[in-house]
Amino acid sequence: MEANVYHIDGKVEKKVTLPKVFENTTYNDDIIKRALLAEQSTQYQAQGHDVDAGMNTSAVYVGRYSTYRTGRHIGRPARPRQKLAKGAQGEVRRIPSAKKGRRAHPHMVGKNIIEKINRKEYAKAIEIAIAASANASLIKKYHSVSNEIPIIVSSSIEKITKAKDLMKVLVALGVSEDLERSHKPKGKEGNRKGSKRRYFRSSVLIVAKDAKEIGKAGRNIPGVDVIGVDRMRISVLAPGAKPRLTLWTEAAISALPEGIKASVLSYKQ
User: Fold this and answer.
1) Could you give the CA distance from residue 35 to residue 19 in angstroms, rounded to a whole number?
2) Which CATH class is domain 2-44+114-266?
3) Does 33 score more than 60 pLDDT?
4) Dihedral of CA 139/144/149/151: which sign?
5) Every domain of the chain and the residues it spans
6) Which among 5, 25, 74, 78 is placed 20 to 30 Å from 50, CA to CA?
7) pLDDT at residue 187, rounded to an integer
8) How far apart are CA 222 and CA 149, in angstroms?
9) Which helix (H) or strand (E) element contains residue 256?
10) Considering the entire predicted model, what is its pTM?
11) Strand 12-17 to strand 198-199: parallel, antiparallel, or no bridges (unpaired)?
12) Three-state SS for 147?
């Protein structure tokens, strides 16, 4: 399978043979969703509470049949009550039904909230997402692009460090319409709409062999993400379990087989 390699001015420079991973024509979104949920679970914040919450009080339960501090013969229930001066009883504390008492069923501090995934399954999901980036029918279903799919650019694009220069290259490659669509912020649905929070849609993903310099330019363009070929993630390759418009550099294509292995090994769960 061959594809055109474009210069940064948008003209065809040569052809290159694509790796075998691009030959997969079936898109299995079940594996993508499985890997995406597992990846997102590593970003959750652990929940828990102080083990002494609601228990730091002078209240003590002395028992039902004791005679001291029980309130017997005066119609008061036996509950853990605050210790006051001269043997007096204060308010009920400690129990869940009491004011400032402990919670009945608090979150467990050691609860496992990370959904693990086998490395082979995660590697399979990355391969499916990469192959989907070369499927023109799937890409044009979610993105607007006038160029051939997949889009492979000369490695000279990795030396760009300014956003305005990178923007000129993206316009020359025929993805300007998709960028304009992503620049229109969309409001969050539900209760968050009251806070007027906005987010930008995902547009072009640039996969480079060395993303250090081009990453400085891509981070200033809304909707554009830049990642290294050895740090690929499902949340970036297929956000929302949908194939993404991806721009590959020629150097990234040549390093793709080793990049998939490095990406899987660097994934921590």
Assistant:
1) 22
2) alpha beta
3) yes
4) negative
5) 2-44+114-266, 48-112
6) 78
7) 58
8) 22
9) helix 256-266
10) 0.77
11) unpaired
12) coil
Question: Average pLDDT in the 9-28 region?
Answer: 87
- Determine the Cα–Cα distance for residues 160 and 224; give it in Å rounded to an integer: 14
**pLDDT for 127:** 94
Cβ 159 vs Cβ 206: under 8 Å: no
CA gap 172, 178 in Å, rounded: 13
The single residue listed with the structure tokens 């999901």 is 125
How far apart (Å, rounded) are the C-alpha atoms in residues 245 and 132? 9
CA quadruple 251, 255, 260, 264: dihedral positive or negative?
Answer: negative
Better pLDDT: 110 or 9: 9
Q: How far apart are CA 70 and CA 72, in angstroms?
A: 5
For the stretch 176-213, pLDDT in tens is 888 888 776 665 566 655 556 666 788 899 999 998 99
Structure tokens given for 221:
């363009």
Q: Cα–Cα distance between 243 and 138 in angstroms, integer?
A: 7
Cα distances (angstroms) measured from residue 75 to each of 70, 88, 92, 98, 260: 10, 15, 15, 18, 73
